[in-house]
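so my prof wants the structure for this chain in the tokens format not the other one, which i didnt know existed until like an hour ago. anyway here's the sequence
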Amino acid sequence: MGKKRVLIVDDDSRNIFALVNTLKAKSYDCLSCLSAEEALKILKENSSIDAVLIDMMMPEMDGYEAIPLIKEIPSQESTLVIAVTAQAMAGDREKCLQAGADAYISKPVDVDKLLQILEEI
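here's what i got, hopefully its the right format
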């Protein structure tokens, strides 16, 4: 079995840098982009993505708008979508899951928790 591919979507390149380095050290193949629009293009063109980590608060199109669009892409309907957000208030997890996310993790990211979620793919 090959490496699992993860697409990281975040408008802050520092978050992408940290997640890519963490996941590559654990043998994940990582792609990244800075916007939901770019993520949708990547996902439409690339059916070999196993999971998407998406920041919920981004300019133009946020994760709440993007997740249902990701799930509508025929080759991505079973792709694991993980909502990543600094919003860790009561009800935020439920809001992310209602938007279609399969899992939720708050920032700063608990790496052990993230790896446990990614073991599902």
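also thought this was worth mentioning. The chain has five helices and five strands.
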